[in-house]
Specification:
mainly alpha
């Protein structure tokens, strides 16, 4: 991989990683509710789970998963339903105490598994592999490995930033109204992140 390609892939990863999406919204909400320490397993699930997803996609898993139009549509529907459920849970949170009692931070395995139903994670992973790799055999595998390792560093930087941001905001959200408004904003961001996918689902249903 040339330096120019590496730089372009890094910029793409940083821009996509820092912009709001399901992972970042959930990390900010968890940081605000539980603090960074209790959110750490969630953090590590993203930091390890997303690069692993990129690695598997780069090794050809995406070709298998995306070969069926019906399978693609099913994955999109499951993703949207799960994100809508998460948005409802966030919107219903009213105070730090009640939220902490009512739910727990995501575990490492839950956060890692979530990457596979995260539309933005699929967009980044497939986009990075498609745009910044080429060739066959060992050359391709090396490029995929470089992008996956790069994603570990980027995921650490972006995920930690959003969790710390949430924890910092959480200090000012001790009143039920303040936390409700914050979580409502996070819920709306989650819903906004799936609007384009809903359009794709509608088109897919018409084609069946």
């Amino acid at each position: 991989m040339s330096l120019q390609t590496f730089t372009a892939a890094l910029i793409f990863s940083l821009v996509m990683g820092f912009t709001p999406g399901p992972n970042n919204v959930m990390l900010a909400s968890s940081g605000a509710t539980f603090g960074v320490k209790r959110t750490w397993p969630h953090l590590m699930g993203v930091i390890i789970g997303f690069p692993l997803m990129i690695l598997l996609i780069g090794l050809g898993l995406a070709t298998i998963l995306l070969a069926s139009t019906g399978l693609q549509l099913g994955m999109k529907i499951i993703s949207c339903l799960y994100l809508l459920w998460l948005a409802i849970q966030l919107a219903r949170s009213s105070s730090v105490t009640s939220t902490a009692r009512g739910r727990k931070p995501l575990s490492f395995l839950q956060a890692a598994a979530f990457q596979w139903v995260n539309p933005k994670a699929w967009l980044i992973a497939v986009g990075a592999i498609s745009a910044y790799t080429g060739g066959h055999g060992s050359r391709l595998y090396l490029q995929v490995a470089i992008i996956a390792l790069m994603s570990v560093a980027v995921a650490f930087a972006t995920s930690t930033t959003w969790a710390v941001f949430g924890a910092a905001i959480g200090r000012w959200l001790r009143s039920p109204l303040a936390l409700r408004l914050f979580n409502l904003a996070m819920a709306l961001l989650l819903v906004a992140s799936i609007v384009p996918i809903l359009g794709e689902i509608r088109t897919g249903l018409h084609l069946l």
